[in-house]
Design brief:
It contains 4 helices and 2 strands. This is TIGR03643 family protein.
Length: 92
């Protein structure tokens, strides 16, 4: 089932998918889409070469899959990432 996302939401999904420490489960939690749906969005929205590079990068990466993460990592975002609330980056 295809969900309609705003351009801003699509940008955030793509950004989260590229972030090493953001698991697919965080994208599911925030946007209600599965890992497979995220992959389909990435395939559709990116150039083929960029998509292939991204897939190679995230396949098997333990930080992108909550089940493969170490038990002491329980956050969705990097501690160095700017605070984000409600899908909006907070102002400085």
């Amino acid at each position: 089932m295809e969900k309609d996302f705003t351009e801003r939401e699509l940008d955030r999904i793509i950004e989260m998918a590229w972030e090493d420490r953001t698991p697919f489960e965080a994208i599911t939690f925030q946007f209600g889409i599965s890992e497979q749906e995220t992959i389909e969005i990435m395939r559709r929205e990116m150039k083929p070469s960029s998509f292939r590079m991204w897939r190679k990068r995230v396949q098997g990466r333990s930080t992108k899959h909550a089940k493969l993460r170490q038990d002491d990592i329980d956050r969705f975002k990097s501690s160095r990432q700017k605070p984000i609330s409600g899908n909006k980056i907070s102002k400085r």
